[in-house]
Write a structure and sequence with these properties.
By secondary structure, the protein is mainly alpha-helical. The chain is built from twelve helices and eleven strands. Helices cover 60% and strands 10% of the residues. A hairpin with a 5-residue loop joins strand 10 and strand 11.
């Protein structure tokens, strides 16, 4: 059964490519800052003027166009691969009902849905990468942040660096705030919400959210179509270790369709083994839930997980970790904290690399200290919780 781990593996190369492009933009800016730091004021001004329509901007525009082309194809490939995998898992139920099971390409309802979602994702993705900006403050005392295009930010930062060459201010100290702001922002997209307020979001986070939500939508709608084609009468949920507490009791269970609909409507419900559950406020698949559903035929579809396996997942999660101060964490909470450490490690690893490209000793020292702090915390916390340390995250 397809689950959230499988989806993460499918979409990770797409997210990595977004991060790689952002890093390349920051790297180009950092290297020019380094170059300016070695020049006189007049030399710096001459360099900046020559760069305003020079190779860096042309390369960034070329790389962005190439990224868009490659990413759109990757996304299409993910959706096509996932669609066929979902369909293949249902073959046994078509055969059981003695219903025709054509090749995926000949199942018009499913193909139409797949291409509709590919087009929707494509439109939204193009909207994101066609409007990439840095969001920074104009001056240290300002509380207002404003979006600045990649080209605008490039010009602004290099001009600031050049102007700094005619002052007595230490160059590294003078550029620290600006480099820090660029890294705090990263590439973002401005989104206007239902409340008419415009907010900025990291491009990589937007792409991840888009793909996670659209792959869940693909599965939900495909399951509904296939259910009608082969006559499903129930739903099975995926399961994973260290689940959130509200969904943990029901993960891996099978439900009659009407009972699953009660679950989704925040009503009391029961599974096929007559276990009763109180209403759950958060629907399956919503509000950051990563559980997946599969349409089944009750009494025919063998559950993916045994009762023993599901109970062990719950027991292992509850066992968790008790900190020296007496506070107890479930394994779900432990893994959430571990992910937080990993995000901070990745962030400061990137910051340190950019500071090195800029040859900014002030920021190198600051960022490496934070990086080391998070690495040490990650190792100690993971060891205490008996969680594996992912060396690729260090």
């Amino acid at each position: 059964m397809i689950n959230e781990d499988a989806i993460d593996k499918l979409i990770q190369p797409i997210l990595d490519a977004q991060d790689k492009f952002e890093f390349s933009v920051l790297q180009k800016i950092a290297l020019r800052i380094r170059q300016i730091s070695t020049l006189s004021y007049s030399g710096a001004i001459a360099l900046v003027r020559s760069l305003f329509a020079g190779e860096d901007i042309l390369n960034i525009e070329r790389d962005l166009a190439q990224l868009s082309k490659v990413q759109r194809q990757r996304i299409e490939n993910v959706i096509k691969s996932l669609s066929k995998q979902i369909y293949a898992e249902a073959e046994v139920l078509y055969r059981y009902r003695d219903i025709d099971y054509p090749a995926f390409e000949k199942n018009k309802e499913l193909c139409d849905l797949m291409y509709l979602l590919i087009d929707e994702i494509d439109d939204e993705y193009l909207g994101y990468i066609g409007n990439e900006v840095f969001v920074i403050r104009d001056n240290p005392s300002s509380q207002l942040k404003r979006p600045m295009s990649i080209t605008g930010a490039y010009h602004s930062v290099l001009n600031e660096a050049a102007q700094l060459r005619q002052t007595n201010t230490d160059f590294d100290t003078g550029m620290s705030r600006t480099i820090d702001q660029l890294l705090n922002s990263g590439l973002r997209c401005m989104i206007t919400g239902a409340d008419d307020k415009t907010r900025s979001f990291k491009i990589t986070n937007l792409v991840k959210s888009l793909l996670v939500e659209k792959t869940k939508e693909l599965n939900t709608k495909m399951q509904a179509i296939m259910s009608g084609q082969y006559g499903a009468d129930g739903i099975e949920l995926s399961a994973h270790i260290n689940s959130a507490p509200d969904h943990e009791p029901v993960q891996g269970r099978q439900f009659l369709t009407e009972e699953f609909n009660k679950l989704q409507s925040a009503l009391p419900f029961q599974d096929t083994k007559k276990n009763w559950y109180e209403a759950i406020m958060r629907p399956i698949g919503a509000w950051n839930c990563r559980h997946w559903t599969k349409a089944i035929i009750i009494g025919v579809s063998v559950p993916e997980y045994s009762e023993k396996q599901l109970k062990k997942m719950i027991a292992d999660n509850k066992r968790g970790y008790t900190a020296p101060n007496g506070k107890h964490y479930t394994m779900y909470e432990c893994t959430q904290m571990q992910r937080s450490y990993e995000r901070n490690i990745a962030d400061y690893k990137t910051r340190y690399k950019i500071a090195k490209y800029a040859d900014n000793k002030v920021l190198q020292q600051k960022y490496y200290a934070k990086y080391s702090q998070y690495v040490n915390g990650y190792k100690a916390f993971s060891k205490a919780c008996n969680l594996p340390i992912n060396s690729n995250k260090l």
